[in-house]
Design a protein that fits this description.
single chain; alpha/beta; Rossmann fold; six-stranded parallel beta sheet; disordered C terminus; binds 6-phosphogluconic acid
């Protein structure tokens, strides 16, 4: 893994603020350069505070929400109003509170008959929304937010699963990993994740420090998160000091402007 860009933030509250500010920075840059901001939200619990901060003053006024287009890096194959739904979490913490045109929020169609059908339909939904072909190269999303599971998974790319080997589809069905919730998933694939202009990992808490160290020093690429290495984009790890553990990675510069 090329030497990662890491910022260590004192605590989880400051981490959430840094993450929210990084989203705003990336959005402003994208809107200025390309007239819109495309972001893939992460699920899990870590991003919740950052989403809440984006949805209220002062940050909520710092973004032209009419230019924001939201997709999901992964989703559980459950109804959108199910408490396990990543869409449901994002709606509760952010989407219900900001003036994004509803047509610019692309939920994974988990009402379809199978996770496989939902993944295929989602590829077409995202392609159509971004006006690109669904069978071509993946879109270069402006920002992809990712979490890190205790087993080194990210999005719903779990160790040892066939989804890791997908080289063409942008989204794929992923059978449950060992970590809860044990439900089928729809996940972005490495081709899509590694096409991002910016990929930001948000990791907090003492219990993540060992896996953070393992992933950031992993040469075997056995951890899915270690295989996030955008072709021409940038990766930023935002860690709180508890997740950073004793490694005390140097605090790098904040999200640099000019994210490619
Ligand atoms: C999901 C997430 C998953 C998550 C990690 C970390 O659907 O659960 O996409 O990849 O980001 O498991 O989860 P926490 O933030 O809850 O630790």
């Amino acid at each position: 893994m090329p030497s990662p860009n890491i910022r260590v933030i004192k605590n989880s509250s400051d981490l959430a603020a840094a993450a929210a500010d990084a989203v705003i920075h990336a959005a402003r840059e994208a809107i200025q350069a390309r007239g819109r901001f495309t972001i893939a939200l992460s699920g899990g619990s870590t991003p919740e505070k950052a989403y809440e901060l984006l949805a209220k003053p002062p940050r909520v006024a710092q973004l032209d929400w009419s230019r924001v287009h939201i997709i999901f890096g992964d989703e559980r194959f459950v109804p959108l109003d199910d408490p396990r739904s990543n869409y449901g979490m994002a709606a509760r913490t952010l989407l219900a509170h900001v003036p994004i045109p509803r047509s610019q929020i692309l939920a994974v169609p988990t009402h379809l008959a199978s996770a496989n059908a939902a993944a295929q339909a989602y590829c077409h939904l995202v392609a159509g929304h971004l006006a690109i072909g669904p069978d071509g190269p993946p879109p270069r999303l402006d920002l992809i937010l990712l979490g890190l599971g205790d087993d080194g998974h990210t999005a719903s790319l779990f160790p040892g699963k066939v989804a890791l080997d997908e080289r063409k589809a942008w989204f794929i069905h992923s059978s449950p990993g060992v970590l809860p919730p044990p439900v089928d998933r729809i996940t972005a694939t490495f081709p899509l994740l590694n096409a991002g202009r910016w990929v930001i990992f948000l990791v907090a808490g003492e219990k993540k420090k060992n896996i953070v160290h393992a992933v950031l020093t992993d040469q075997s690429l056995k951890y899915p998160a270690a295989r996030i290495s955008p072709d021409t984009g940038n990766v930023l790890w935002l860690l709180d000091s508890a997740a950073n553990g004793a490694d005390n990675y140097r605090s790098e510069q904040p999200l640099a402007s000019g994210g490619t």
